[in-house]
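QA checklist item 7 of 12: single-chain prediction sanity check.
[x] sequence parsed
[x] length recorded as 334
[x] structure emitted
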Amino acid sequence: MEISNGVQTQSARTESLAVARRLLRIEAESVKALETRIDDTFLRAIDLLAGITGRVFITGMGKSGHIGRKISATLASTGTPSDFLHPTEAAHGDLGMVTRADAVLLLSKSGETAEILSLIPYFKLLNVPVIGLLGNLHSSLGEKCDVCLDCSVVEEGCPLDLAPTASTTATLAMGDAIAVALLTEKKFRPEDFAFLHPGGALGRRLLMKVEQVMHAGEEAPRVSPDAPMREVILEMTRKRLGAACVVDAEGRLEAIFTDGDLRRTLERGMDFTAMTATQVAVHHPKTIEPGALVTRAINLMETYNILVLPVVDSDGKLLGIVHLHDLLKSGIGR
Protein backbone atom coordinates (compact mmCIF):
# COMPACT_ATOMS: atom_id res chain seq x y z
CA MET A 1 0.00 0.00 0.00
CA GLU A 2 1.35 3.40 -0.95
CA ILE A 3 1.25 5.79 2.03
CA SER A 4 2.81 9.22 2.18
CA ASN A 5 2.94 11.02 5.54
CA GLY A 6 0.29 8.66 6.90
CA VAL A 7 -2.14 9.38 4.02
CA GLN A 8 -2.95 7.01 1.19
CA THR A 9 -1.76 8.19 -2.19
CA GLN A 10 -4.25 8.58 -5.01
CA SER A 11 -3.16 5.32 -6.62
CA ALA A 12 -3.56 3.50 -3.33
CA ARG A 13 -7.06 4.96 -2.91
CA THR A 14 -7.96 3.84 -6.42
CA GLU A 15 -6.72 0.34 -5.66
CA SER A 16 -8.66 0.24 -2.37
CA LEU A 17 -11.86 1.17 -4.17
CA ALA A 18 -11.23 -1.45 -6.84
CA VAL A 19 -10.66 -4.33 -4.42
CA ALA A 20 -13.65 -3.34 -2.31
CA ARG A 21 -15.91 -3.29 -5.38
CA ARG A 22 -14.48 -6.59 -6.55
CA LEU A 23 -15.26 -8.17 -3.17
CA LEU A 24 -18.86 -6.99 -3.25
CA ARG A 25 -19.28 -8.31 -6.78
CA ILE A 26 -17.84 -11.71 -5.88
CA GLU A 27 -19.96 -11.99 -2.74
CA ALA A 28 -23.12 -10.98 -4.62
CA GLU A 29 -22.44 -13.57 -7.33
CA SER A 30 -21.73 -16.22 -4.68
CA VAL A 31 -25.08 -15.61 -3.02
CA LYS A 32 -26.86 -15.47 -6.38
CA ALA A 33 -25.44 -18.90 -7.26
CA LEU A 34 -27.19 -20.41 -4.24
CA GLU A 35 -30.60 -19.80 -5.78
CA THR A 36 -30.24 -22.70 -8.21
CA ARG A 37 -29.32 -25.00 -5.30
CA ILE A 38 -32.65 -24.50 -3.52
CA ASP A 39 -34.17 -27.80 -4.61
CA ASP A 40 -35.41 -31.12 -3.23
CA THR A 41 -32.26 -31.50 -1.14
CA PHE A 42 -33.03 -28.21 0.54
CA LEU A 43 -36.60 -29.38 1.18
CA ARG A 44 -35.30 -32.59 2.81
CA ALA A 45 -33.26 -30.45 5.18
CA ILE A 46 -36.31 -28.34 6.02
CA ASP A 47 -38.42 -31.46 6.60
CA LEU A 48 -35.83 -32.83 9.03
CA LEU A 49 -35.53 -29.56 10.93
CA ALA A 50 -39.26 -28.94 11.05
CA GLY A 51 -39.88 -32.46 12.30
CA ILE A 52 -37.85 -32.27 15.51
CA THR A 53 -39.28 -31.38 18.90
CA GLY A 54 -36.04 -30.10 20.38
CA ARG A 55 -33.43 -27.55 19.34
CA VAL A 56 -31.29 -27.00 16.28
CA PHE A 57 -27.66 -26.97 17.36
CA ILE A 58 -25.29 -25.11 15.08
CA THR A 59 -21.60 -25.94 15.14
CA GLY A 60 -18.58 -24.61 13.30
CA MET A 61 -14.96 -23.56 13.90
CA GLY A 62 -13.34 -20.19 13.29
CA LYS A 63 -15.23 -17.90 10.92
CA SER A 64 -17.80 -20.64 10.37
CA GLY A 65 -18.42 -20.57 14.10
CA HIS A 66 -19.12 -16.84 14.00
CA ILE A 67 -21.53 -17.37 11.11
CA GLY A 68 -23.10 -20.26 12.99
CA ARG A 69 -23.84 -18.04 15.98
CA LYS A 70 -25.68 -15.59 13.75
CA ILE A 71 -27.70 -18.35 12.06
CA SER A 72 -28.59 -19.74 15.48
CA ALA A 73 -29.77 -16.29 16.61
CA THR A 74 -31.89 -15.89 13.48
CA LEU A 75 -33.48 -19.31 13.95
CA ALA A 76 -34.25 -18.61 17.60
CA SER A 77 -35.84 -15.24 16.81
CA THR A 78 -38.03 -16.71 14.08
CA GLY A 79 -39.60 -19.56 16.01
CA THR A 80 -37.01 -22.35 15.80
CA PRO A 81 -35.29 -22.92 19.17
CA SER A 82 -31.55 -23.01 18.57
CA ASP A 83 -28.17 -22.91 20.31
CA PHE A 84 -24.58 -22.72 19.18
CA LEU A 85 -22.39 -25.70 20.06
CA HIS A 86 -18.66 -24.97 20.01
CA PRO A 87 -16.92 -28.07 18.63
CA THR A 88 -14.04 -27.93 21.09
CA GLU A 89 -16.23 -27.31 24.11
CA ALA A 90 -18.54 -30.08 22.88
CA ALA A 91 -15.71 -32.57 23.23
CA HIS A 92 -15.26 -31.43 26.84
CA GLY A 93 -18.80 -31.83 28.11
CA ASP A 94 -21.03 -29.51 26.10
CA LEU A 95 -22.08 -32.46 23.97
CA GLY A 96 -24.45 -33.19 26.85
CA MET A 97 -26.57 -30.28 25.62
CA VAL A 98 -27.67 -32.32 22.62
CA THR A 99 -30.58 -34.71 23.09
CA ARG A 100 -32.33 -37.21 20.85
CA ALA A 101 -35.02 -34.59 20.21
CA ASP A 102 -32.54 -32.21 18.56
CA ALA A 103 -30.91 -31.74 15.17
CA VAL A 104 -27.44 -30.55 14.21
CA LEU A 105 -26.50 -28.05 11.53
CA LEU A 106 -22.76 -28.09 10.93
CA LEU A 107 -20.78 -25.52 8.97
CA SER A 108 -17.47 -26.15 7.25
CA LYS A 109 -15.88 -24.72 4.11
CA SER A 110 -13.45 -27.59 3.60
CA GLY A 111 -15.68 -30.32 4.94
CA GLU A 112 -12.62 -31.66 6.73
CA THR A 113 -12.81 -29.75 10.05
CA ALA A 114 -11.27 -32.25 12.45
CA GLU A 115 -13.05 -30.95 15.56
CA ILE A 116 -16.44 -31.44 13.90
CA LEU A 117 -15.55 -34.79 12.37
CA SER A 118 -14.76 -36.10 15.86
CA LEU A 119 -18.32 -35.27 16.97
CA ILE A 120 -20.10 -37.15 14.18
CA PRO A 121 -20.04 -40.57 15.94
CA TYR A 122 -21.80 -39.09 18.96
CA PHE A 123 -24.45 -37.47 16.80
CA LYS A 124 -25.01 -40.84 15.14
CA LEU A 125 -25.33 -42.56 18.53
CA LEU A 126 -28.01 -40.03 19.48
CA ASN A 127 -29.61 -40.61 16.07
CA VAL A 128 -30.15 -36.89 15.53
CA PRO A 129 -30.46 -35.49 11.99
CA VAL A 130 -27.16 -33.99 10.83
CA ILE A 131 -27.28 -31.38 8.09
CA GLY A 132 -24.15 -29.89 6.60
CA LEU A 133 -23.67 -26.47 5.07
CA LEU A 134 -20.48 -27.31 3.27
CA GLY A 135 -18.08 -25.75 0.83
CA ASN A 136 -17.11 -29.21 -0.39
CA LEU A 137 -19.80 -31.86 -0.74
CA HIS A 138 -17.22 -34.51 -1.64
CA SER A 139 -15.49 -34.33 1.72
CA SER A 140 -15.34 -36.43 4.86
CA LEU A 141 -18.18 -34.45 6.43
CA GLY A 142 -20.12 -34.58 3.19
CA GLU A 143 -20.08 -38.40 3.37
CA LYS A 144 -21.37 -38.46 6.94
CA CYS A 145 -24.19 -35.90 6.90
CA ASP A 146 -27.80 -36.93 6.38
CA VAL A 147 -28.30 -33.95 4.07
CA CYS A 148 -25.63 -31.69 2.56
CA LEU A 149 -26.36 -28.19 1.25
CA ASP A 150 -23.87 -26.84 -1.25
CA CYS A 151 -22.36 -23.54 -0.03
CA SER A 152 -19.28 -23.66 -2.24
CA VAL A 153 -17.97 -20.51 -3.97
CA VAL A 154 -15.80 -20.03 -7.04
CA GLU A 155 -13.39 -17.74 -5.23
CA GLU A 156 -13.05 -15.66 -2.09
CA GLY A 157 -13.35 -11.88 -2.24
CA CYS A 158 -10.03 -11.53 -0.46
CA PRO A 159 -7.38 -10.55 -3.08
CA LEU A 160 -5.13 -13.22 -1.59
CA ASP A 161 -7.97 -15.77 -1.86
CA LEU A 162 -7.27 -16.68 1.76
CA ALA A 163 -9.60 -14.94 4.22
CA PRO A 164 -13.11 -16.45 4.22
CA THR A 165 -15.32 -13.76 2.75
CA ALA A 166 -17.54 -14.98 -0.08
CA SER A 167 -17.74 -18.44 1.49
CA THR A 168 -18.92 -17.13 4.87
CA THR A 169 -21.39 -14.77 3.18
CA ALA A 170 -22.83 -17.65 1.13
CA THR A 171 -23.11 -19.85 4.22
CA LEU A 172 -24.84 -17.07 6.12
CA ALA A 173 -27.29 -16.57 3.26
CA MET A 174 -28.05 -20.30 3.15
CA GLY A 175 -28.66 -20.21 6.90
CA ASP A 176 -31.08 -17.31 6.44
CA ALA A 177 -32.83 -19.26 3.68
CA ILE A 178 -33.32 -22.17 6.09
CA ALA A 179 -34.63 -19.85 8.79
CA VAL A 180 -37.24 -18.20 6.56
CA ALA A 181 -38.31 -21.53 5.07
CA LEU A 182 -38.87 -22.90 8.59
CA LEU A 183 -40.65 -19.67 9.51
CA THR A 184 -43.09 -20.25 6.67
CA GLU A 185 -43.42 -23.97 7.43
CA LYS A 186 -44.35 -23.19 11.04
CA LYS A 187 -46.74 -20.37 10.05
CA PHE A 188 -44.78 -17.95 12.22
CA ARG A 189 -46.78 -14.70 12.51
CA PRO A 190 -45.72 -11.08 13.03
CA GLU A 191 -47.27 -11.34 16.50
CA ASP A 192 -44.94 -14.27 17.27
CA PHE A 193 -41.95 -12.21 16.10
CA ALA A 194 -43.06 -9.29 18.29
CA PHE A 195 -43.42 -11.63 21.28
CA LEU A 196 -39.77 -12.59 20.91
CA HIS A 197 -38.65 -8.96 20.39
CA PRO A 198 -40.41 -6.98 23.14
CA GLY A 199 -37.52 -4.49 23.34
CA GLY A 200 -37.60 -3.50 19.68
CA ALA A 201 -39.73 -0.93 17.88
CA LEU A 202 -41.49 -3.70 15.96
CA GLY A 203 -42.37 -5.50 19.14
CA ARG A 204 -43.75 -2.35 20.70
CA ARG A 205 -45.76 -1.58 17.58
CA LEU A 206 -47.25 -5.03 17.32
CA LEU A 207 -47.99 -5.69 20.98
CA MET A 208 -48.91 -2.31 22.46
CA LYS A 209 -52.58 -1.63 23.08
CA VAL A 210 -54.55 1.56 22.59
CA GLU A 211 -55.19 1.99 26.33
CA GLN A 212 -51.41 2.28 26.85
CA VAL A 213 -51.04 5.31 24.58
CA MET A 214 -54.39 7.11 24.73
CA HIS A 215 -55.03 10.47 26.39
CA ALA A 216 -57.42 9.51 29.19
CA GLY A 217 -59.41 11.31 31.86
CA GLU A 218 -58.99 15.09 31.94
CA GLU A 219 -56.54 14.91 29.03
CA ALA A 220 -59.32 13.92 26.65
CA PRO A 221 -61.08 16.96 25.15
CA ARG A 222 -64.82 16.74 25.69
CA VAL A 223 -67.84 19.05 25.56
CA SER A 224 -71.58 18.64 26.04
CA PRO A 225 -73.91 18.53 23.00
CA ASP A 226 -75.34 21.98 23.78
CA ALA A 227 -71.95 23.62 24.32
CA PRO A 228 -71.56 26.80 22.23
CA MET A 229 -68.92 26.65 19.50
CA ARG A 230 -66.73 29.13 21.38
CA GLU A 231 -66.45 26.60 24.21
CA VAL A 232 -65.74 23.81 21.72
CA ILE A 233 -62.84 25.73 20.20
CA LEU A 234 -61.47 26.71 23.62
CA GLU A 235 -61.53 23.03 24.68
CA MET A 236 -59.67 22.07 21.51
CA THR A 237 -57.08 24.76 22.26
CA ARG A 238 -56.63 23.71 25.89
CA LYS A 239 -56.16 20.00 25.17
CA ARG A 240 -54.03 20.59 22.04
CA LEU A 241 -55.18 17.43 20.26
CA GLY A 242 -56.95 19.13 17.37
CA ALA A 243 -60.35 17.77 18.30
CA ALA A 244 -63.17 17.87 20.82
CA CYS A 245 -65.45 14.93 21.59
CA VAL A 246 -69.15 15.62 22.10
CA VAL A 247 -70.52 13.44 24.92
CA ASP A 248 -73.96 13.21 26.52
CA ALA A 249 -74.77 13.48 30.22
CA GLU A 250 -73.87 9.78 30.66
CA GLY A 251 -70.48 10.25 29.04
CA ARG A 252 -71.41 8.43 25.80
CA LEU A 253 -69.76 9.69 22.64
CA GLU A 254 -72.14 11.40 20.23
CA ALA A 255 -69.87 13.18 17.79
CA ILE A 256 -66.46 14.72 17.21
CA PHE A 257 -65.31 18.12 15.94
CA THR A 258 -61.78 18.47 14.59
CA ASP A 259 -59.45 21.11 13.18
CA GLY A 260 -60.34 19.82 9.74
CA ASP A 261 -64.07 20.28 10.40
CA LEU A 262 -63.36 23.84 11.54
CA ARG A 263 -61.50 24.65 8.30
CA ARG A 264 -64.21 23.10 6.14
CA THR A 265 -66.90 25.02 8.04
CA LEU A 266 -65.06 28.31 7.46
CA GLU A 267 -64.51 27.47 3.77
CA ARG A 268 -68.27 27.01 3.35
CA GLY A 269 -68.83 30.49 4.83
CA MET A 270 -70.99 29.18 7.67
CA ASP A 271 -71.53 31.43 10.67
CA PHE A 272 -71.28 28.89 13.45
CA THR A 273 -70.77 31.34 16.30
CA ALA A 274 -74.37 30.92 17.45
CA MET A 275 -74.44 27.16 16.89
CA THR A 276 -73.90 24.35 19.39
CA ALA A 277 -71.47 21.45 19.32
CA THR A 278 -74.03 18.85 18.28
CA GLN A 279 -75.15 21.03 15.34
CA VAL A 280 -71.68 21.27 13.82
CA ALA A 281 -69.80 18.14 14.91
CA VAL A 282 -69.60 14.93 12.89
CA HIS A 283 -71.86 12.27 14.36
CA HIS A 284 -71.03 8.56 14.59
CA PRO A 285 -67.27 9.01 14.20
CA LYS A 286 -64.83 6.14 13.85
CA THR A 287 -63.90 4.80 17.30
CA ILE A 288 -61.74 2.10 18.80
CA GLU A 289 -61.86 0.03 21.96
CA PRO A 290 -59.12 0.37 24.63
CA GLY A 291 -57.94 -3.23 24.31
CA ALA A 292 -57.32 -2.99 20.56
CA LEU A 293 -53.76 -3.19 19.29
CA VAL A 294 -52.12 0.09 18.31
CA THR A 295 -51.54 -1.33 14.83
CA ARG A 296 -55.31 -1.45 14.32
CA ALA A 297 -55.62 2.18 15.40
CA ILE A 298 -52.94 3.17 12.89
CA ASN A 299 -54.64 1.19 10.14
CA LEU A 300 -57.98 2.92 10.87
CA MET A 301 -56.34 6.35 10.80
CA GLU A 302 -54.58 5.60 7.52
CA THR A 303 -57.68 4.06 5.93
CA TYR A 304 -59.99 6.96 6.79
CA ASN A 305 -57.32 9.69 6.63
CA ILE A 306 -57.93 10.90 10.16
CA LEU A 307 -55.52 12.01 12.88
CA VAL A 308 -57.49 11.20 16.04
CA LEU A 309 -59.59 8.30 17.25
CA PRO A 310 -61.95 8.46 20.25
CA VAL A 311 -61.58 5.44 22.54
CA VAL A 312 -64.89 4.09 23.87
CA ASP A 313 -66.04 1.15 26.00
CA SER A 314 -68.73 -1.39 25.08
CA ASP A 315 -71.45 1.10 26.13
CA GLY A 316 -70.06 3.81 23.90
CA LYS A 317 -68.70 5.87 26.80
CA LEU A 318 -65.67 7.98 26.02
CA LEU A 319 -62.53 6.69 27.75
CA GLY A 320 -59.90 8.70 25.92
CA ILE A 321 -58.49 9.68 22.56
CA VAL A 322 -55.41 8.68 20.54
CA HIS A 323 -53.55 10.98 18.15
CA LEU A 324 -51.44 9.71 15.25
CA HIS A 325 -48.61 12.12 16.09
CA ASP A 326 -48.20 10.56 19.54
CA LEU A 327 -47.84 7.13 17.95
CA LEU A 328 -45.25 8.37 15.46
CA LYS A 329 -43.22 10.22 18.10
CA SER A 330 -43.07 7.14 20.32
CA GLY A 331 -41.69 5.08 17.45
CA ILE A 332 -44.78 2.88 17.30
CA GLY A 333 -46.10 4.12 13.99
CA ARG A 334 -44.62 3.26 10.63
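[x] summary fact logged: The first strand starts at residue 3 and ends at 4.
[ ] second reviewer sign-off
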